[in-house]
Amino acid sequence: MKNFWYYHKFHVLIAVVALAIVIASVVPAAKKDEADFCLGIVSSQYYDDEDIAALKEALSLIYGSADVRVYHLELGAEGQDSAVVSALDLDIIAKTSRAFLLEDWETFREVTGFEMSDPVPAEEMDCFKNTPFETLSYVSRLDC
Predict the structure, then answer these.
(1) How many helices (DSSP H) and strands (DSSP E) are in the chain?
(2) Which of 20, 32, 41, 61 has the fewest C-beta atoms lying within 10 Å of its C-beta?
(3) CATH topology of domain 37-140
(4) Cα–Cα dist 74/65, whole Å
(5) How far is CA 89 from the centre of its chain?
(6) C-alpha span between 143 and 116 (Å, rounded)
(7) Domain locations in the chain?
């Protein structure tokens, strides 16, 4: 055993470092908590953090856990914030949000090619009544 360490110490040290790297990358991925429902809001209007938190809480009561992503932009307009547009594109491609609240659902469909249900006025849905979001239209994904 005395000679084992002399001949294999570099192999053992490399194995220990490799194991530490694997553990350091797997543990955070395993602990990642994804919401049961994700809603995207596409609107040119700004919303308070309190309103977003209240919406998350209302959706969490229905779906278990919820995440709300707000994309502040006016679809089809020139000079949009490219980071917001890219984030929305990624959301659509990755199918992160299962539904959207939209200010202009017809333009959204034209610009994104997004397959969606027929829009429902948010004011007709209980979780959006008497909130700043009731003027928007609710659509859900057909490809999820």
Answers:
(1) 4, 5
(2) 32
(3) D-Maltodextrin-Binding Protein; domain 2 (3.40.190)
(4) 28
(5) 11
(6) 8
(7) 1-32, 37-140
pTM over cut 0.70? no
Phi and psi for 128 in degrees, rounded to 5?
Answer: -110, -5
Pairing relation of β-strands 120-121 and 66-72?
unpaired
Block residue for tokens 């709300």: 68
Residue 76 DSSP label:
T
Please compute the mean of the pLDDT values over residues 99-124 and round it to a whole number: 80
For residue 4, the one-letter residue type is F
- CB-hemisphere CA count at 13 Å for 76? 9
pLDDT tens-digit readout, 51-105: 888 888 888 888 888 888 888 766 666 666 677 778 888 887 888 888 888 888 7
